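hiii, so i know i said id send this last week but things got crazy w the move. better late than never?? heres the sequnce for the chain we talked about at the cafe, plus the structure i predicted for it. fair warning i was half asleep when i ran it
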Amino acid sequence: MRCKARIEALGCLQTFGVDYTDTVNTVRSFLAVCCCLDYFVKQYDIETAFLIGDLYEVVFMTVPAGMKVAAGMVCQLHRSLYGLKQAAAVWFRTIRDVFRRAGFVQCTSDTCLFVKRSGHAPVFVVLYVDDLIIGCKYEEDAEEVCRELATHFTVKELGDVRYVLGMEVKYDKKRGSFGWVRSNLLNGWWTSLEYVIHTQCATQLCKVKSNTLKTDLL
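okay and structure toks below
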């Protein structure tokens, strides 16, 4: 059993210009811009993203169970692997270079945002973990980006944006609006809470302490 204590500030009580000035919310800003520009927003997933990319550091690991090698031998990693501290950085560096070669410019104020001029309208790409969302005036632009990525990675098309960072997104291109729906998160928390409530049981130690306390009081 681990006991934790967490202190949080009530940011909802802060006043803009008094308690804070600048904030960053890339995905929300991205969706707001796409609404204003009447853009399509498509979502994609890169399969096994954290296994892609070369390691610059020298990293050794013990031989996994089941591999037959000579006694005393270890493995040197040349590619990224799940569990490495730098796995996310290696993946980001890899896909960043792909975007740059494809003509995208990386935003200096938010490095997970990439922009490319395509015809008369720019194409925006926001990268988060191993997923990305593309905002474009014409669906053909998103398909072109997908084809470029497919030459380097295994890309899974998820269609119109629906879930981002664990939250459901309601994006309405016709009405020019979007919103967040957190019901899936709340349902998940409630399910976990119900599990904790219904799986509580008295341990033998608790019974002993309770009986001892009653004896002492008598």
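btw Residues 102 and 145 are 8 Å apart (CA to CA). thought thatd interest u
miss u guys!!
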